[in-house]
Amino acid sequence: MTAIPTRLRTEVREEVAQLCGSAPTGRELLAGVASRLRDAVPFDGCFLSSTDPDTLMFTDQVVVEAMPPTACRPFFHNEFESDDFNKFADLARHPGRVRTLSDATGGQLGRSARAMDVNARLGFGHEVRFSFTVGDRTFAVGSLTREIGRADFTAEERQLIGGLLPVVADGMRAAALVASPADALAGEALRVGVDEIPALASEAAEAPPVLMAPAGPGLVEFDAAGRPVSACDAAVHWLGAVDPREPLGPPTPFGFRLPLAAAMVVARARAHAAGRGSAPAEATLRTRYGTRLLLRAVCAWEPGGAPGVTRLVVAPIEAAGLAPEAAAAFRMSPREQEVTAYLARDLAPADIAFRTGLTVDTVAALSQNVLDKAAVASRTELVARIFAEYYYPAHNAGCRPLSA
What we know:
The protein is α+β, with helices and mostly antiparallel strands. Helix content is 44%, strand content 20%. Helix 1 runs antiparallel to helix 2.
């Protein structure tokens, strides 16, 4: 491969750094990174995805090229259910956090199940993977591939990618508040006051609320090959209401397209049943009505010891479960998240200190940190912002007209 010109390396770094401060969503940031990288590091296929930093589960900000929906199931099976080289979970702990598959396999790509069962079937040979990690928290992962017959990724190319990883990781962390009607509502709420929230929500809504939503969770059953074979009415409703901006797989016989997050949760449950992996088999999804869904799966065993039916539970998240997500989006530490919960309950500093075992001065300092990170000036504004972004959409979706 030809050496990367110094000027091009500099331009890529500067443009990516600028993008990290301007991209409105994680998906647009990852798309911009891929576009700018391609000039210096040519590739034929790519997979870039945001991740849940606590579980390393792929989340909803995804950029793919030359990866059809039919490749998702074998890709997830390899990542979560099979032993292989250069897994994203391993790569997040690798010192450089960027590595080629040929390096991981000692130059023998045939040793990798992913190389043979996924990449080769798509016409790809060499692969480089990387993780956008800060400290021990990974906010996105990526993979670039080249067509069979093309040269491997060079040390210079890996070095360029490696230099971008912490910058993009920080950008993905800052973009954790995904653009949505609730985001616009939050910004306006801080300017016009809490009393205007209902009117703003009406203007921002993309779809009418659910008038006949099921009261409880739904259940989908998957066979040993990972195919959905049965689904109750509630599951059909909830999965049919998933926000179309969420990555979706092929259609199912039940009328909804299976979200990729659901396929990952099922794959992780099967991995647990086989004794691999420890991260929870769960994920969350947005619906087009502003509510969020919790997905959890468990895999049963057949009498002979083979993996059997996997059951996926799909349930709407109660509002109380969203506050930690809001605190995490504002990049708060665990202690700051704890203080945020107490501030929302309007507890006095002395009460918070008693409940947390901290001094009153420490509580005051943490409270100020919380206000600064949320870009508000008071506890009232903090509660208004968290309500506007994480509670009001669910509240509004549950409203029923009196005459209905």
